[in-house]
Write a structure and sequence with these properties.
This protein is of the alpha/beta class. The protein has helices spanning 2-10, 13-20, 24-38, 54-76, 95-112, 128-133, 178-183, 197-204, 219-228, 237-243, 275-300, and strands spanning 43-46, 49-52, 87-93, 116-122, 139-143, 152-157, 161-165, 185-189, 211-216, 231-236, 250-253, 263-267. The longest helix has 26 residues, at 275-300. The protein starts with a helix and ends with a helix. 27% of the residues are buried. The mean pLDDT is 86.
Length: 301
């Protein structure tokens, strides 16, 4: 249709080819294909000029209108107005991000983008690639090694953990020492069949074995367990600052310097240049900045 439209405007194979930035032979091939498909000469030579046939003249208006509509549709894909857009974003989040990022993100979107809906899906390191490949999610936020990822991504913040316990069941008014931590019973996060979880595995790498009595894939059961039993729940700092007080738990610094994969944001190439996806990623970056500042302020207090 593009070749036909150019030919209708220029009535010259040479000029039409130049306008489309293709070779004259390619333009001639396009016209030959059109003639075969439409069973009409379309353009015939009259003297020194090319003239459209009756069928070509009939097609000219509808073809121009179809091309204009297609061009408008393509331009519309590059425009995203959060105030008026109605759209569902499918976002994969780890348990920590569901509890910390999602509430703050939704609070912001309700004010700035009332037509935007989020479909949150729980992800783990083992499931996120499969879900991304299948198109089940368009964005993932959680622990993922960017060096081993085939997706676009960036680090949002480093992962830090802290200790939570019930002061009525564990009498530790001061800082937790290494011995305090090692002699205690523990509740840790584990999203695999390994009861040690990421904390236990990290300490095992240092030759230390914890007495882990409960492992769960979510943080809330760990905090609930620490409320009712003399356990130390080791959870991310952001989880502890926001939710530990609700369970009546004290928060103490981790007596070991443990290294965990950072929290990253990843997305597939299919949405890399999508205007809506770019906007959502900007919102997440902004929310993470606010949460990080709040965490620093609370730690200082």
């Amino acid at each position: 249709m593009i070749a036909f439209d150019a030919m209708m405007q220029e009535l010259s194979v040479t000029k039409s080819a130049a306008k489309l930035r293709i070779g004259q032979s390619a333009m001639s091939h396009n016209l030959s294909t059109l003639r075969m498909l439409l069973q009409d000469d379309l353009f015939v030579r009259v003297g020194q000029k090319m003239q459209p046939t009756a069928k070509a003249r009939t097609l000219a208006g509808p073809v121009r209108a179809a091309l204009a509509q297609a061009q408008s549709a393509l331009k519309a894909c590059d425009v995203f107005d959060p105030a008026t857009e109605v759209r569902v974003f499918r976002v994969g989040l780890t348990d920590e991000m569901e509890m910390v990022l999602l509430p703050e993100l939704m609070k912001r979107l309700q004010n700035e983008a009332p037509g935007i809906k989020l479909l949150s899906r729980s992800i783990t390191v083992d499931t996120v690639d499969t879900m991304m490949d299948a198109g089940e999610i368009d964005l993932a936020v959680g622990c993922k090694d960017l060096l081993q990822s085939r997706y676009r991504g960036e680090i949002l913040f480093e992962t830090e953990v802290t200790c939570c316990f019930n002061p009525m069941l564990i009498d530790k008014p001061g800082a937790l020492t290494r011995d305090d931590y090692l002699n205690a019973r523990h509740a840790v996060l584990s999203q695999t069949e390994n009861v040690a979880g990421c904390v236990g595995v990290a300490l095992e790498g240092m030759g230390i074995e914890l007495d882990i009595v409960v492992a769960a894939p979510d943080f809330m059961p760990l905090l609930a367990a620490a409320r009712h039993a003399p356990l130390i729940a080791t959870v991310p700092c952001r989880i502890a600052r926001q939710y530990a007080p609700l369970f009546g738990l004290e928060i103490r610094a981790m007596p070991f310097d443990l290294q965990f994969p950072p929290i990253s944001m990843n997305w597939p190439m299919r949405v890399d240049c999508d205007a809506g996806g770019m906007w959502l990623r900007d919102q997440i970056r902004s929310v993470v900045g606010v949460l990080s500042n709040d965490l620093v302020q609370r730690a200082a207090e």
